[in-house]
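Why run this: before we spend reagent on co-expression, it is cheaper to look at a predicted model of the complex and decide which construct boundaries make sense. The entries below are exactly what would go into the expression plan.
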Amino acid sequence: MSDSFDQISQQLKRRHRKSARLKWLSMGALGLAGLFLLWFFTDMLIKGLPAFQQAYVETEISYSEEAAKDARQAIDSDLIPIVSRTEIRSIPLLLRNEPDRIGSRETRWLLANSEVDQYLKGHRSKLSDKEIATVERLVASGQVEQKFNSTFFTQGDSKRAESAGILSAVVGTIMTMIVTLAIAFPIGVMTAIYLEEFAPDNRFTQLIEININNLAAIPSILFGLLGLAIFINFFGVPRSSPLVGGMTLALMTLPVIIISTRTALRSVPESIRHAAFGLGCSRWQVVKDHVLPLAMPGIMTGSIIGLAQAMGETAPLIIVGMVAFIPDVGASFTNAATVMPAQIFTWASEPEKAFVEKTAGGILVLLTILISLNASAVVLRKKFERRW
Amino acid sequence: MNSMNTQATVQTPGQSAERVEQQTPAVGQPYTRNNEASHELSIRVRDLNLWYGKSQALSNISIDLFQKNVTALIGPSGCGKSTFLRCLNRMNDLIPSVSITGLVEMDGRDVNAAKMDEVALRRRVGMVFQKPNPFPKSIYENIAYAPRMHDMVSRKADQDELVEKALRDSGLWNEVKDKLQEPGTSLSGGQQQRLCIARAIAVQPDVILMDEPTSALDPISTATIEDLMDKLKEQFTIVTVTHNMQQAARVADYTAFFHLGEVIEYNDTKVMFSTPAQKKTEDYISGRYG
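The model came back. Tokens follow.
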């Protein structure tokens, strides 16, 4: 006689309990990961968002003869410790370039000192009691205000926190990525096409394959050493330049592009190749006209992800000298430049409190760019996804 | 060429001078069809052997295929009929472990010779596959691609004309003439297969190989394709692999029965299905195995 439903249910209870336990465990792990992510983002936002606000002081500047020699004569002596020294120092330069201004007066919003900024944001500051009194007075009369920090997006690095910006790093990153993409994309895609569509399957190609897969797992700092040894020391590429940084990162991105391209090529159904061969296409025509167009979305996705990975890379760039104090926005591929993660690294090691929010602000900019890159990869994949 | 025909192992159902007078063909011997006009040789196969790695898939195949006829290759699964078909346009080249001996001759040339360019061969020997595999491009582009690639057309008007002709010949024109720019993959299965046929005939080959062209289709689409094959044999030599014996009986002028990599019998379809010469053929046709 077979068991009744009740008996079977009795036996099943234990099995059901087991699967329920597993379900709760995995959901717990997921929740924990989500919580950490949320924590990280909230922390970044809380620390970083203030970096986009900066204190400005409405100041009356008198462009006198004395001011051309000693800038401190141009503004009220009470304001000297409050206004950023960057602004004060720029006055004699301005007068030298535009001598007509001498003798005139002007009221402008100037960048406040980072200590004032930190004080207004409620952080600890090194202002004396007298200076605090001045700041309070100015705030009351509306002469000190928090405004959108355009300096952060339009200037390069600076030793003074209030005038430090991320632009030179953004431009450096863009130039480096152009070099990386220009080298890694064609070489990577062509290598993958050769291995996938042309190469015979023998010991030699298998060896190449294994090595490419291993290359993807090599610590990135080793690529930096390779870049230093080969590109800088042997070929004499200028150090700290986007050129050498881009070449080094290209080495790192290559395996990612090769592997993703091969996967994309392999996902093109064999029937399409047969159809093309059957019509009398040569191997190259099969690849160029049929396989490659179908694999393109996958190749693009892989390349964007590889690029995003390279964009967040710091270690190999330290070795080739791209972690440097770069106040000027880069002009060419061979000038010294820095990249965003390296800039964040530099700011993070500054002792001044005001640089903490710069660091977080830089991370926010980097994250925004990376997330939009990855999102565009997802969109590309969704848009061109084809089912057979 | 005729000297080969005298070999006992050569199976040819075509006209050969010595046999015409005989009237009553011997069992398994070359056979004459009196009422058919065309018996010109298209592809001559002699002592063809093929190995996948170490296992032999075809042994000593020697048959003649005739122009402007439908030849059906039948036989149980794994008997080598598709493998044989792919020898005719060297699609087996794509499989690295394959090795071939013997002669496949077309137009007096050995297709396996080093000098033979497989691209040139495939332009003259087109292929239609088991599963419809249109390119994921527009219907127009599916057909126009190959002629353009082979420099058969230079002007846009010629190309349009060629596309229309190929679609008319494949009986698809009236169904798709208003949506030539829609993707080929949006058509129904049967239409896709006819699109693949249109694509194959657009390069004006001599021979069209069909590898079970209807096995993925419904009965109505199958009937349409069979009618189409009947029409196309006026222009092309058709070699088709089929699992379906009724189909072979319906469409083929000649039928070759493959078993375990050998041609057991090759004859006029009517004769083959009414009075098979070999016991194995009879057993297969009557459904005792397969």
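The mean pLDDT of chain B is 86. The two ends of chain B are 35 Å apart (CA to CA). Bring this page to Monday's planning discussion.
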